[in-house]
Design a protein that fits this description.
Blueprint (H helix, E strand, L loop, with lengths): L18 H4 L18 H10 L16 E5 L14 E5 H5 L13 H40 L10 H14 L1 H13 L5 H22 L1
Helix pairs in contact: 4-5, 4-6, 5-6, 5-7, 6-7
This protein binds zinc ion.
């Protein structure tokens, strides 16, 4: 007969306390030191993406700050780890809120490395959000250029004009600027330059209106 202990591969023969029985079936064992791991990394990054990788309270973003996930309704008050109950908070804002959801200072080299890796990932996430925003604005600028000079090739517009359009989109939003472009085009000035100047005058008037209204 083979003795029980020799049937088990050596690495599996390592004594495991009954702790694994406490974990739900199928769940990997967790390191006890990092309690905030109870929110999975995937959920954390879903929250970051929804919030544009910036702190909901103060707008800070990587690499200036490390992002945490904060509970709207604290766990102690009955809040859960559902995405609706979570917001992105920078470390200072989150930790400044007191004893809620205390973060554990990383103890081991492995934990420090994991934190650094996550900071890198947060920065890449933020940069991606910014890149998508830039692309969205680029598309908006081309839409306005099309409205001003329909039918002409989109890369046919002067660079400084495109920069002006970008500036107006930033100040007024794409809908206001598209509306101004339509208005200028339908004025029928028979000159790209005059149409563009008219467009600029409409936009500036709206910028000033907005400035006076507030
Ligand atoms: Zn903050």
């Amino acid at each position: 007969m083979i003795h029980g202990a020799t049937r088990v591969a050596p690495e599996k023969a390592v004594f495991r306390p009954a702790l694994s029985c406490l974990l739900e079936p199928g769940q990997p064992e967790r390191h006890m030191a990092t309690q905030r791991k109870s929110i999975s990394k995937r959920i954390r990054f879903d929250v970051f993406k929804r919030d544009g990788f910036a702190c909901t309270y103060c707008g800070a973003h990587p690499p200036a700050v490390v992002l945490h996930v904060d509970h709207v309704l604290a766990l102690a008050e009955g809040g859960g780890n559902e995405i609706d109950n979570l917001v992105t908070a920078c470390a200072p804002c989150n930790l400044g809120k007191g004893a809620r959801n205390l973060k554990v200072v990383p103890q081991t080299l492995a934990e420090k490395a994991a934190l650094v890796a996550e900071q890198d990932e947060q920065l890449r996430g933020y940069q991606q959000v910014m890149e998508e925003k830039r692309q969205r604005i680029d598309e908006e600028v081309w839409r306005v250029a099309d409205a001003l000079q329909p039918g002409s090739p989109t890369n046919g517009m002067r660079r400084d004009w495109l920069q002006s359009i970008r500036m107006f989109v930033g100040k007024l939003g794409v809908h206001e600027v598209l509306d101004a472009a339509d208005q200028a085009y339908h004025r029928g000035l028979h000159s790209d330059r005059r149409t563009f100047l008219y467009f600029c005058s409409i936009c500036w008037a709206r910028v000033k209106e907005g400035g006076n209204a507030s």
